[in-house]
Amino acid sequence: MSIALSCLGGVALDALLGEPHRGHPLVAFGKLADRLEHHFNGPGGRGWRSHGVTAWCIAVLPLTAVAWLLGSLPTVGWLVEICVLYMALGLRSLGDHLLPIARALRQADLAEARQRVGLIVSRDTRELDEQGVARAATESALENGSDAVFAALFWFVLAGAPGVVLYRLSNTLDAMWGYRNERFERFGWAAARIDDVLNFIPARLVALTYALLGQTRRAWRCWRTQAPLWDSPNAGPVMAAGAGALGVALGGPAVYHGELHHRPVLGEGEAPQARDIERALDMVWAGVGLWLLALLLGGWLDA
Questions:
Q1: Digit-coded pLDDT (tens) for 162-197
Q2: What is the pLDDT of residue 303?
Q3: Region class of 42: left (phi > 0), else alpha (psi between -120 and 50), else beta
């Protein structure tokens, strides 16, 4: 029951306070990661895989150990754990970033919608039409809901504060180093593979959650037939099941760093609109409620 209550406390803090506007630990961690990358990888991306492994260990393992020590403190350890989970969650910030995009689309302010969606996705958004903006935002809601919310809860339940710190820092390094380009192909290999491993089980639990909360048969069919075609082993199930559950078509061509990528179509149905961004967010929130209910019920049965 204590794990369930800690999860409830972390989610409640996130819903109440949102992301800290100043002094967020992940911002400081990002600066540390930049320094490590410049030291071990060099300006021209000359680092090898072993350099990436070394940099990952220096960035992640000491902070994970600190989280374990602080979480083990008598009397205040439980409070530390709740605060660590709160810092790792991005549930409210997901809505803070995505709802203004939906609002701009409803007001036919395409320039504003493009600008806002460009802050949260890596694709080129300058030429997107309304459907393209809605597609990018809906994909972000489903994928980031998995990465920044559900996976953090999973690792907190499994291993407490050190588990969620290990996961969240690893996921951040994947976002910074896990690119398949000349600079990061070798150096970022470890960060990308470790994140794949840490997200493997959570992503499939999230896909199942999305399927249960939407059009279940369609979600299951899209997950089974479309996810293997996606280049990411974890984003594929999450977005295919999510798109199927919502009854929209995601994926398709997109421009990344000036290069056109022909991505498979995920889901079935019409192209997404502003309301589908909101529906995807509602599904993430409902999924969190379902997970918390399951944890509380499990804790009550064990008591």
A1: 999 999 999 999 999 998 888 888 999 999 999 999
A2: 63
A3: left
Length of the chain: 303
**Residue 100 tokens, joined:** 């203004």
- Return the bridge partners of 260, or none: 255
Judge whether 246 and 222 are in contact, CB under 8 Å: no
Q: What share of the chain is helix, strand, coil (3-state, %, to 5)?
A: 75, 5, 20
Burial of 231 (0-12, 13-18, 19+ CB in 10 A): exposed
**How far is it, in rounded angstroms, from Cα 78 to Cα 73?**
8
DSSP H helical ranges for 18-150 = 25-41, 49-71, 77-88, 91-106, 110-117, 130-145
Q: What angle is formed at CA 109 by the lines to CA 103 and CA 114, rounded to 5 degrees?
A: 85
Q: How remote is the C-alpha of 79 from its chain's centroid?
A: 24
Residue 152 burial by CB count (10 A; 0-12/13-18/19+): exposed, middle or buried?
Answer: buried
3-class DSSP assignment, residue 261: strand
Residue of higher predicted confidence among 42 and 14? 14
Strands 265-267 and 259-261: unpaired
Enter the DSSP assignment of 165. H
- CB-based burial of residue 269 (10 Å sphere; 0-12 exposed, 13-18 middle, 19+ buried)? middle
